[in-house]
From TrEMBL:
Keywords: Apoptosis, Phagocytosis, SH3-binding. This is ELMO domain-containing protein. PANTHER family: ENGULFMENT AND CELL MOTILITY (PTHR12771), ENGULFMENT AND CELL MOTILITY PROTEIN 3 (PTHR12771:SF16). Residues 292-462 form the ELMO domain. One of its GO terms (biological process) is actin filament organization. Transmembrane segments: none annotated. Involved in cytoskeletal rearrangements required for phagocytosis of apoptotic cells and cell motility. Acts in association with DOCK1 and CRK. Was initially proposed to be required in complex with DOCK1 to activate Rac Rho small GTPases. May enhance the guanine nucleotide exchange factor (GEF) activity of DOCK1. Signal peptide: none annotated. GO terms for molecular function: SH3 domain binding. The lineage of its organism: Eukaryota, Metazoa, Chordata, Craniata, Vertebrata. It comes from the Eukaryota.
Length: 692
């Protein structure tokens, strides 16, 4: 006899010593039960059955007996038919205590499909339906009745469509009741959810019986189980429309929302409560000692770079390789990247979104990382830093962690058409960051400005209420950097048109003074100087040179410098360009070498001085500072976008200050005294730690 046909098990029975037997899997189960009963001198083996003693106490049948493993502990108990008969009689007892005990036991054993078949064959489920329809039992008995009914129906033996309209109305009344036992409402919500998901006809009945006010109130209770069940029912109502097509469900959402503010508020609360389940991850910083989190972090690195087998490397070599690759990934603290994820929010949610992007869209992830890690022109977009900031931006836009407002109605239709909305939005928007970064020709210094533009792109797109992720993706990618600038300009002009004439007059009077302030700031920056990289014929930026304006604003001094040079003295810069001899200042497409780089966007200005031409390729901020400063030196008007932005900010601040109601408010002649320093600085964040 093969060894696998024999299983060594223990069999228990209350009040008796366990039996250790060798179960022959080829012997009929009835014969095995007879031998066990004979061992305890029990008559009528047909009245007994075996079931697991631990975990899910499933009955052993001929169909599942092969799942029994060596060392399993079984229990001799009532046969499912006998148990079903006893409970069926107990439920009809005139003694409420017997009824309660029978229904409580029924709720437990109904999880087993073998028992459920026996009980339903005796029409036991109809008996439970009648108890609910009569609705004259105590709350505890009703809770056991509903729980047992739910467990029986979950096996799919009886169709939900066989239920009467009276029963459905009773269950809906339990949900709609303002004062009722929480356990009854919890099970009732689960029963209605199963009804809605089972058929379109039941969906219509439940939709008519259940009021939105009560569902909203269930979402706002402190009982987590009721809140979860209510949310599940709401999602089921939204997702069931008699048609599997997602767009049909969206049409139902829009038609419902157009009825009034009540439905809009209902959708808003549902969205808010669902998204707030992400809050614990958002509030939790990375734990450097958590092995799972560390593996996810290293998984990001391994998914981006195909490296030699790390097991064969020494500890120091492996550590150096990891630090190098984490730096390419865009972590600020490449030797300990977990430090970048200590800020909460976004906390672990940033790690989750990065891991989701890497696993869900591996090609896009690899393309993003490799494209930027191989750049040598200082215009690389840092993936990790961008991801952490983007996750925070999405949390703020979607208001994750904020409790729903009592009067809120601003929901996003895309939420109801897309599973894992935050993660999918992240996957679209992280690629948008890379695209916008290239459009702005940004460097690390421009990081905050790029993220401001991306936030505006996301906010403007979501405000148009896209109904699908694909529609959001198309709209947000069409809203490029140049479109953002046009929209800003249009809105600024519109704002100016709406200002009162006295305010416009004040604005025009203030403008010359503020322009002079910006001019002086530009000249001061030129006097401080800037470190540039020389552009070789192959567009590689390897050598460095420094340029600064003389204090009398008459000469530009420049010369080659070493890598670690900060601000060289003006005497060490041997080359000079007299400002009076500068013939022209060209930017962008007007620069001579731009003809060789058609279609490429870059921030370049060219100075024509005698027979020499000097190209300056810089970041967006440096470009604005130098073009404005050189324009001032040449007697021209400043025209950079940075100048326009700064002028708007200064004008807005100055006008607000001028319009403040300061009547009877004493204004001191001198600045107030500086307060004494605190006794310690433990509240300060050590920025140097993040740079190590």
């Amino acid at each position: 006899m093969p060894q696998q046909d024999i299983v060594k098990i223990a069999i228990q029975m209350p009040g008796a010593y366990p039996q250790l037997i060798q179960l022959d899997q080829k012997k009929p189960l009835s014969a095995v039960i007879k031998e066990v009963c004979d061992g305890w001198n029990l008559p009528g083996p047909d009245n007994y059955a075996l079931q697991y003693a631990d975990g899910v106490q499933t009955y052993i049948t001929e169909s599942n007996r092969l799942d029994i493993k060596n060392g399993c502990i079984l229990r001799l108990t009532k046969a499912p038919g006998r148990c079903a008969e006893d409970l069926y009689k107990g439920i009809q007892s005139s003694d409420s205590g017997v009824r309660c005990d029978s229904l409580k036991q029924l709720a437990c054993v109904s999880t087993d499909v073998t028992f459920a078949q026996e009980f339903i064959s005796r029409d036991g489920h109809s008996l439970l339906v009648k108890i609910v329809e009569d609705a004259d039992e105590a709350p505890l008995i009703m809770t056991h009745t509903l729980t047992g009914f739910m467990e029986l129906m979950d096996h799919g033996i009886v169709s939900w469509e066989n239920l009467s309209a009276v029963f459905i109305k009773k269950i809906a009344n339990f949900v709609n009741a303002k004062v009722l036992d929480a356990s009854i409402q919890q099970v009732s919500l689960a029963i209605l959810e199963s009804m809605v998901l089972s058929s379109s006809s039941l969906f219509q009945q439940v939709k008519q019986e259940v009021t939105l006010e009560r569902l909203l109130s269930h979402l706002q209770v402190t009982n987590q189980q009721i809140q979860t069940k209510a949310m599940a029912l709401l999602m089921a109502l939204l997702q069931t429309a008699g048609d599997a097509d997602r767009q049909v469900r969206m049409n139902i959402i829009h038609s419902s929302a157009s009825v009034g503010d009540e439905m809009a508020h209902y959708l808003y609360v549902l969205q808010s409560v669902t998204l707030n389940h992400l809050e614990p991850r958002m509030r939790m910083p990375l734990d450097s000692y958590n092995q799972d989190q560390r593996e996810i972090l290293h998984g990001l690195r391994q998914a981006a770079f195909e490296t030699e087998s790390e097991n064969s490397l020494s500890h120091e070599r492996r550590r150096s390789l990891c630090a190098k690759e984490f730096k390419k990934l865009g972590f600020s603290n490449n030797s300990n990247p977990g430090q970048d994820l200590l800020r909460a929010p976004p906390g672990l949610l940033a790690l989750d979104t990065m891991a989701y992007f890497a696993s869900r869209y591996p090609d896009a992830y690899s393309r993003f990382v490799l494209e930027n890690s191989s750049r040598e022109d200082k215009h690389e977009c840092p993936f990790a830093r961008s991801s952490i900031q983007l996750t925070l931006i999405l949390c703020e836009i979607l208001r994750i962690g904020e409790p729903p407002s009592e009067t809120g109605s601003n929901y996003h239709p895309i939420f109801f058409s897309q599973d894992r909305l935050l993660e999918e939005l992240f996957c679209v928007c992280i690629q948008l960051i890379n695209k916008t970064w290239k459009e702005m020709r940004a460097t690390q210094e421009d990081f905050d400005k790029v993220m401001q533009v991306v936030r505006e792109q996301i906010t403007r797109t979501l405000s148009s209420k896209p109904t699908s992720l694909e529609l959001f993706k198309n709209k947000v990618n069409a809203l490029n950097y140049s479109e953002i600038l046009k929209l800003r300009q249009t809105e600024r002009l519109h704002q100016e048109e709406t200002l009162a004439p006295p305010v416009l007059e004040l604005k025009e009077r203030l403008k010359p003074e503020l322009l002079e302030l910006i001019r002086q700031q530009r000249l001061n920056r030129l006097c401080q100087g800037t470190l540039f990289r020389k552009i070789s014929s192959r567009r590689r930026q390897d050598k460095l040179w420094y340029c600064r304006l003389s204090p009398n604003h008459k000469v530009l001094h420049f010369g080659d410098v070493e890598e670690d040079t900060e601000t060289p003295p003006i005497e060490s810069l041997q080359e000079k360009i007299p400002v009076a001899d500068i013939k022209a200042l060209l930017t962008g497409k007007d620069c001579p070498h731009m003809k060789e780089n058609k279609g490429k966007q870059t921030k370049v200005c060219t100075i024509r001085y005698k027979e020499w031409i000097y190209d300056i390729s810089v970041s967006l901020l440096q470009f604005c500072l130098w073009t404005d400063g050189l324009s001032v030196l040449l007697g021209r008007d400043m025209s950079s976008e940075c100048m326009r932005s700064e002028l708007d900010i200064l004008l807005s601040m100055e006008i607000k200050l001028r319009l403040l109601d300061l009547e009877n408010v004493p204004i001191p002649d001198c600045a107030p005294p500086v307060p004494k320093p605190p006794s310690n600085f433990n509240f300060c964040y050590d920025l140097s730690q993040a740079e190590q």
